Amino acid sequence: xxxxxxxxxxxxxxxxxxxxxxxxxxxxxxxxxxxxxxxxxxxxxxxxxxxxxxxxxxxxxxxxxxxxxxxxxxxxxxxxxxxxxxxxxxxxxxxxxxxxxxxxxxxxxxxxxxxxxxxxxxxxxxxxxxxxxxxxxxxxxxxxxxxxxxxxxxxxxxxxxxxxxxxxxxxxxxxxxxxxxxxxxxxxxxxxxxxxxxxxxxxxxxxxxxxxxxxxxxxxxxxxxxxxxxxxxxxxxxxxxxxxxxxxxxxxxxxxxxxxxxxxxxxxxxxxxxxxxxxx
Length: 280
Known about the structure:
By secondary structure, this protein is α/β, with parallel strands linked by helices. The chain has helices spanning 3-17, 19-29, 46-59, 79-88, 99-111, 150-160, 185-191, 199-208, 221-236, 247-265, and strands at residues 69-73, 91-96, 118-122, 135-141, 161-170, 173-174, 212-213, 217-218, 269-270, 272-277.
């Protein structure tokens, strides 16, 4: 792995392994799903909206059948994996770089009686060790933004897909039409990387890998709603976090969320469901 990609992995791992991040996502986000939600109203509960994203993505997958083998890249606490296993009979391999999140994933998975269908591996999605053509579906939610080598991630994902298999993921992205990427500097500083992906970037990479668009959706308005919702929830429950999350972390998070909302208001960010199929 190139040095910059390795450094990005270490940065993301240190962040998600921290007590502050773990407590914040467990308390404010709900501890099952830690990704952008689909909202019907501005005050919808975060956990409910986040689960709707999982359900929506699952309905798009033709290959999601009992026994389907799914690889979840950047699986977090494993909420999506448990839904796919419980509701669709899938066998899911969770690959995630945070051992703190992995431990919570295993505990929650065991508690729901799903350990025989879900495997949790520690590792980075830039270096997939799985055999070629070993998964029916590659799944990811709001994780690729943390990679310094997103092209490498997609190449690996395409390699482990079976012919006819599907890749589906979401990611906070910069808009294709952004005139001055430097305007997103406050956002880039939050992820410690020089850029975000974009719909155009992912289309170009997946097309070059020989995959075919199976129904990509631009749902960019949900990104703004989500980050504004998280910021409002964090503000309202700030006192509840005393002793569990440091004041410095909360202050940085509020500031960072404000930058994301502002950039979304200016049309500089994008988000949606990217869905491609490997020709069979």
